[in-house]
C-alpha cells in the first residue's frame, strides 16, 4: 500500500467476473483509503458484469464501521443498502435482504473481501478489527442461511404453515424475543466459538419465519383470526382423537 498525503491506495486481488481494473492491469482491483474529517473511508468497485456493477464504500469512525453497497444496473437507478458493525440485534429484520440474496448483497463474496482488505489498510485497533471480523462472519452466515430454518425444515410446506399458525400470540412473541436474546448474548460474547457464529444464518431465518407470521396476523381482521383459531383447535382435536373401528 502506498500513501499520497492523506490518500492511500491498495489492491484487492482478482475482480469478481474478471475484466480490467481502473489501473488497466488484468485482475487487479485497486481501492483508496481517504481521510474525511474524523473518519477513514475506503471505496471501490468490487464486481462488474454486462448487467451492472457493484460499488462499496467502507467508513470507519470511532468504534463503528459502516459498509455501504451500491448496485448500479445499466438501465435503471442504483440500489443501495448498508450495514454498521458491530451489528445491532435488537430488531434483526434489517438482515432479511441479505438473507434473501437481494441486490446489492447478492455480490456478497467480493463485498466481504473488499471490507476485510479495507480493515487491514485502515489504522484501526486490533481489538476492534477482531470484533468487526466476527460480525462479518455472522453476515456471511446470514447470506448463506438455509431456505427453511431447522425448526421447520423436516415438515412439508403445509405442515410448516400449520405449525406457525398454531403458535398463539404469546408464544410467537416469546419465540421472537428468545431469538433476539440468544443472538445478542452469543454474537457479542468474545469466547463463543466460530461454529456458533456460523449458525447465525439459521436463527435469522427462524426469526424471519416468526416475524412474517406476526405480520400476516396483523394484516388480517380480528374476525378472520378468530375463525382461524377455531379451525386450528378442531384440527388438533382431530389429530389426537383415538381411532375407533
Present the secondary structure layout.
Elements: E1 2-4, E2 7-11, E3 30-36, E4 39-48, E5 52-61, E6 64-73, E7 79-85, H1 96-99, H2 108-121, H3 126-143, H4 157-165, H5 169-187, H6 194-197, H7 200-219, H8 222-240
Antiparallel strand pairs: 1-2, 2-3, 3-4, 4-5, 5-6, 6-7
Helix pairs in contact: 2-3, 3-7, 5-7
Summarize the structure.
With 245 residues, this protein is of the alpha+beta class. 44% of the residues lie in helices and 21% in strands.
Features:
seven-stranded antiparallel β-sheet; 245 residues
Structure explained in plain terms:
Helix content is 44%, strand content 21%. With 245 residues, it is of the alpha+beta class. Strands 1-2-3-4-5-6-7 form a seven-stranded antiparallel sheet, covered by helices on one side. A hairpin with a 2-residue loop joins strand 5 and strand 6. Helix 3 (126-143) packs across helix 7 (200-219).
Give the H and E element order: EEEEEEEHHHHHHHH
Helix segment count?
8
Computed CA radius of gyration, to the nearest angstrom: 23 Å
Please give the share of residues in helix.
40-55%
Kindly report the average pLDDT value.
83
Count of DSSP strands? 7
Uncertain residue segments? 1-8, 11-29
Largest sheet: 7 strands, antiparallel
Task: Give the strand line-up of the largest sheet.
Answer: 1-2-3-4-5-6-7
Shape: elongated
Distance between the termini: 81 Å
The portion of residues forming beta strands comes to 15-25%
Structural class: alpha+beta
Amino acid at each position: 500500500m502506498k500513501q499520497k498525503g492523506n490518500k492511500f491506495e491498495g489492491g484487492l486481488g482478482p475482480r469478481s467476473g474478471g475484466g480490467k481494473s481502473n489501473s488497466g492491469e488484468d485482475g487487479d482491483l485497486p481501492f483508496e483509503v481517504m481521510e474525511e474529517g474524523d473518519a477513514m473511508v475506503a471505496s471501490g468497485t468490487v464486481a462488474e458484469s454486462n448487467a451492472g456493477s457493484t460499488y462499496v464504500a467502507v467508513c470507519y469512525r470511532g468504534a463503528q464501521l459502516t459498509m455501504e453497497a451500491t448496485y448500479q444496473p445499466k438501465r435503471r437507478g442504483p440500489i443501495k443498502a448498508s450495514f454498521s458493525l458491530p451489528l445491532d440485534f435488537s430488531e434483526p429484520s434489517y438482515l432479511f435482504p441479505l438473507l434473501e440474496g437481494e441486490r446489492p448483497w447478492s455480490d456478497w463474496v467480493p463485498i466481504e473481501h473488499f471490507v476485510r482488505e479495507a480493515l487491514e489498510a485502515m489504522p484501526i485497533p486490533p481489538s476492534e478489527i477482531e470484533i468487526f471480523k466476527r460480525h462479518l462472519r455472522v453476515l456471511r452466515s446470514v447470506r448463506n442461511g438455509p431456505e427453511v430454518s431447522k425448526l421447520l425444515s423436516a415438515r412439508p410446506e403445509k405442515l410448516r404453515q400449520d405449525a406457525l399458525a398454531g403458535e398463539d400470540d404469546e408464544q410467537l412473541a416469546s419465540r421472537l424475543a428468545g431469538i433476539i436474546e440468544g443472538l445478542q448474548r452469543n454474537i457479542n460474547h468474545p469466547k463463543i466459538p466460530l461454529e456458533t457464529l456460523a449458525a447465525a444464518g439459521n436463527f435469522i431465518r427462524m426469526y424471519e419465519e416468526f416475524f412474517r407470521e406476526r405480520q400476516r396476523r396483523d394484516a388480517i381482521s380480528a374476525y378472520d383470526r378468530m375463525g382461524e383459531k377455531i379451525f386450528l383447535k378442531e384440527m388438533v382435536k382431530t389429530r389426537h382423537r383415538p381411532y375407533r373401528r
